[in-house]
Amino acid sequence: MKTRIGILGMGGVGGYFGGLLAKEYYKSDSVEVVFIARGETQKVIAKNGVKIVTDSDEIIAFPFVVSNDSEVIGKLDFLICATKTYDIEESLNSIKKCITKNTVILPLYNGVDASERISELFPENELLQGCVYVVAMILSPGIIKKTGVYEKLFFGSTMASLTTLNKLQSIFKTASIESYLVENIDEVIWEKFVFISALASATSYLNENIGDILKNKASRELYFSLLNEITLLAAVKGLNLPEDIIMQSILKLEKSPHDATSSMHRDFIALRKNELESLTGFVINEAQKYEVDVPTYEMVYKKLVFSDLLPSE
């Protein structure tokens, strides 16, 4: 019996990693990859497949099926969630008929509270935790642009069986996905959150890309201040992050494509709904709970929440 994997969200993360899975398992006798998409994205992928454009080549991959109809999608063994954090509940509820009590769910969101929110919807399911590092974005429906060479997928669980975890790791490795099954997944996710929260907040507040921040002293200082505040919060929460987490985050920034920016910044520029609450507001709310001062985060949030760039409801 085939293992059926659903990819929910065909943006940069879902489109890229889902595309690698679809390419490997298109004619597989053991795995079926299903893209859950709608509208123009669904039409384009059904006709032309998903195209992944990298710095050196192009990949075109076709899933077993692409649909947003639960009857067409069918029951899933694994569900990889890669929508934006503000779509967690709505997107999962839209396909709840495809999620049985045996469906294993792997969230790959930017925030750190996804697992808690998903467990409220599906308390009986095996729920993994995960995060990715990749610079990828939608060029147009069904076409994903991936830049740079840094791409990693981390996942793990304190509750799921080792058999389940090893099976998924084998599926990833066969598809040439650089994936790591780790025990300390909470800390790994927070390491990513420290990096992406500070970056998203800084790029959106300053309206600058990575290169601008690196070459501008005032911008670097603001980014550094954000890193200091969020790492202090993590320490107070009792998370065992690397002692040099700030330096690691800066090095990651330096290795990132300098003309790239955060997805939240791109959403602000395009006047789209964005992840301000998950990436900036969440830090402020947690800081209040733990009585940690985060004045830079508060300054950034105050400007952005009332920004003219915010889409109207």
Automatic annotation (TrEMBL):
<dbReference type="InterPro" id="IPR013752">
    <property type="entry name" value="KPA_reductase"/>
</dbReference>
<dbReference type="InterPro" id="IPR013332">
    <property type="entry name" value="KPR_N"/>
</dbReference>
<dbReference type="Pfam" id="PF08546">
    <property type="entry name" value="ApbA_C"/>
</dbReference>
<keyword id="KW-0560">Oxidoreductase</keyword>
<feature type="domain" description="Ketopantoate reductase C-terminal">
    <location>
        <begin position="184"/>
        <end position="303"/>
    </location>
</feature>
<dbReference type="Pfam" id="PF02558">
    <property type="entry name" value="ApbA"/>
</dbReference>
<comment type="function">
    <text>Catalyzes the NADPH-dependent reduction of ketopantoate into pantoic acid.</text>
</comment>
<feature type="domain" description="Ketopantoate reductase N-terminal">
    <location>
        <begin position="5"/>
        <end position="157"/>
    </location>
</feature>
<comment type="similarity">
    <text>Belongs to the ketopantoate reductase family.</text>
</comment>
<dbReference type="InterPro" id="IPR013328">
    <property type="entry name" value="6PGD_dom2"/>
</dbReference>
<keyword id="KW-0521">NADP</keyword>
<dbReference type="InterPro" id="IPR036291">
    <property type="entry name" value="NAD(P)-bd_dom_sf"/>
</dbReference>
<dbReference type="InterPro" id="IPR051402">
    <property type="entry name" value="KPR-Related"/>
</dbReference>
<comment type="pathway">
    <text>Cofactor biosynthesis; (R)-pantothenate biosynthesis; (R)-pantoate from 3-methyl-2-oxobutanoate: step 2/2.</text>
</comment>
<dbReference type="InterPro" id="IPR008927">
    <property type="entry name" value="6-PGluconate_DH-like_C_sf"/>
</dbReference>
<dbReference type="GO" id="GO:0008677">
    <property type="term" value="F:2-dehydropantoate 2-reductase activity"/>
</dbReference>
<dbReference type="InterPro" id="IPR003710">
    <property type="entry name" value="ApbA"/>
</dbReference>
<protein>
    <recommendedName>
        <fullName>2-dehydropantoate 2-reductase</fullName>
        <ecNumber>1.1.1.169</ecNumber>
    </recommendedName>
</protein>
<keyword id="KW-0566">Pantothenate biosynthesis</keyword>
<dbReference type="GO" id="GO:0005737">
    <property type="term" value="C:cytoplasm"/>
</dbReference>
<dbReference type="GO" id="GO:0015940">
    <property type="term" value="P:pantothenate biosynthetic process"/>
</dbReference>
